[in-house]
From TrEMBL:
Name this protein carries in UniProt: NADH:ubiquinone oxidoreductase subunit A10
Biological source species: Homo sapiens (Human)
Domain of life: Eukaryota
Upper taxonomic lineage: Eukaryota, Metazoa, Chordata, Craniata, Vertebrata
């Protein structure tokens, strides 16, 4: 049963790593209560402890742009061989930002190839893929 697995396995595991706010359908409609509960959170779990002002600033800039957020969540057609998820896209973006300027030509040639979207993992350290 999906509901029992969600309540007995997933939620307890998530509550160890992050803050979990759980509401009934009626309580979730009261947006003032939800906002108040979020304001009372201490944020002593999860990725918030690892963030500094610069990364929070960039995260805020990202989520302010609704179209940029949609780029991470909307995929026109789901093809498992071609589709790249949000976490994978974020990981590749961070890898790209760490590439020295003299190796950027490898990324450009790879991404501009017809099969560029099929590559889920590739080297950024100077070894050939």
């Amino acid at each position: 049963d999906i509901e029992n697995a969600y309540k007995k396995t997933f939620l307890p595991e998530m509550s160890e790593k992050c803050e979990v706010l759980q509401y009934s359908a009626r309580e979730a409609q009261d947006s003032k209560k939800v906002v108040e509960d979020i304001e009372y959170l201490k944020f002593d779990k999860g990725p918030w402890l690892k963030q500094d002002n610069r990364t929070l600033y960039h995260l805020r800039l990202l989520v302010q742009d609704k179209f940029e957020v949609l780029n991470y969540t909307s995929i026109p057609i789901f093809l498992p061989e071609v589709t790249i998820g949000a976490h994978q896209t974020d990981r590749v973006l961070h890898q790209f930002r760490e590439v020295p300027a003299d190796q950027e030509h490898r990324w450009v040639s790879l991404l501009s190839s017809p099969l560029g979207s099929l590559f889920s993992e590739w080297s950024v350290c100077g070894e050939d893929s």
